[in-house]
């Protein structure tokens, strides 16, 4: 999500410095991929971060994904039929279905795991089998139940903050 990337690059560093690192705020990240709203590889990216968590590199993988988000977006290939895709994602815009192949994105996520010096055999097996898909969907269901309809969404005590807000909003 471009708004999540905006928060990550512009606001999170200040929140980390002033609130998270000082212990004033506990920062909890939950997955809420919006594949159906035009972010076709967001579910696989969430799974990749969860697979990296098994090797204690969740935050590092999230950082790499955000750093490379613009490049990863270029790796999506639209295909004419589902049979043409190696890793199919279908998105519907109005009455028209779009078939997208995200195989190159998955390859790039595996390369990020190698960059992080993860055990790539374990990571690749986790990602290829969608081992973390249930965890990602549970996070999304929990978010929906809590009233999340867009990302990023933050809960600060009982106050909900939606969107890539400037640091002043968090202050």
Overview of the structural elements:
The chain has helices at 2-20, 42-53, 58-67, 69-73, 103-115, 120-128, 133-145, 167-170, and strands spanning 77-79, 88-93, 96-101, 153-156, 159-162. It has a three-stranded antiparallel beta sheet with strand order 1-3-2, with no helix packed on it. By secondary structure, the chain is α+β, with helices and mostly antiparallel strands. The protein starts with a helix and ends with a helix. A hairpin with a 2-residue loop joins strand 4 and strand 5 (159-162). It is globular.
Task: Kindly summarize this structure in a few lines.
With 171 residues, the chain is an alpha+beta fold. The chain has helices at 2-20, 42-53, 58-67, 69-73, 103-115, 120-128, 133-145, 167-170, and strands at residues 77-79, 88-93, 96-101, 153-156, 159-162.
Which key phrases capture this entry?
8 helices; 171 residues; three-stranded antiparallel β-sheet; alpha+beta; globular
Order of helices and strands: HHHHEEEHHHEEH
Which percent band covers the strand fraction? 5-15%
Describe the main β-sheet briefly.
3 strands, antiparallel
Termini separation = 24 Å
Mean residue pLDDT: 94
Query: What is the gyration radius calculated from CA atoms?
Result: 17 Å
Structural class by secondary-structure content: alpha+beta
Q: Name the strands of the widest sheet in spatial order.
A: 1-3-2
DSSP strand count: 5
How many helices in DSSP terms? 8
Uncertain regions spanning at least 5 consecutive residues: none
Please estimate the helix content: 40-55%
- Tell me, briefly, the overall form: globular
